[in-house]
Amino acid sequence: MKIAYFNANLKVGQAGVTRIVYKMIEGVLELNHQVMAITAILPEPSQQIIPMHKVPSVVLPLQKAFRIAVPGYQSFTEILKKFQPGYCLHITFKEVITHQLLLALRDVPQTKL
């Protein structure tokens, strides 16, 4: 199975949701599934346990440690087409990348969200 994870932040240890995403990634890797991620904040290269792709983003004005993806699903549509995930998993709350993912999935019709 191929799974693409979408989360605004994948910097190790920075947010609670990120810790959950990493536990899920580790679990599916143990089952020998193929996994990749698309994010606005990458971890250090030595902490990238799967292929990760960074989307354009801007710093949040009141939370300088966090970034928000800017609109533009074209930044990852080709990556999804090439990877051909069976599932896309997005865990976050009202994020711009959510809308971008939905638009991109029009071009990857066999994928489930």
Quick recap:
The protein has 113 residues and is of the alpha/beta class. 30% of the residues lie in helices and 21% in strands.
Distance between the termini: 14 Å
* Alpha-carbon Rg, integer: 13 Å
Order of helices and strands: EHEEEEHEH
- Shape assignment: globular
Considering the protein shown, what is the CATH homologous superfamily? Glycogen Phosphorylase B
Q: Please, how many helices?
A: 3
Largest sheet: 4 strands, parallel
CATH topology: Rossmann fold
The CATH architecture term is 3-Layer(aba) Sandwich
- Indicate the low-confidence ranges by residue numbers: none
CATH class: Alpha Beta
Helical content, roughly?
25-40%
The pLDDT mean sits at 82
Q: In total, how many domains does the architecture comprise?
A: 1
By DSSP, the count of extended strands is 6
Strand order of the biggest β-sheet? 3-2-1-6
Task: Kindly list the characteristics that best describe this protein.
Rossmann fold, two-stranded antiparallel sheet, globular, 113 residues, alpha/beta
What does this structure look like?
The chain has 113 residues and is of the alpha/beta class. The chain has one domain: 3-Layer(aba) Sandwich (Rossmann fold). It is 30% helix and 21% strand. The protein is built from three helices and six strands; from the N terminus they run βαββββαβα. The strands form two sheets. A four-stranded parallel sheet has the order 3-2-1-6, with helices on both faces. Strand 1, helix 1 and strand 2 form a beta-alpha-beta unit. The longest helix is centred in the first third of the chain and has 15 residues. The protein is globular, with a radius of gyration of 13 Å. The chain starts with a strand and ends in a 9-residue tail after the last helix.
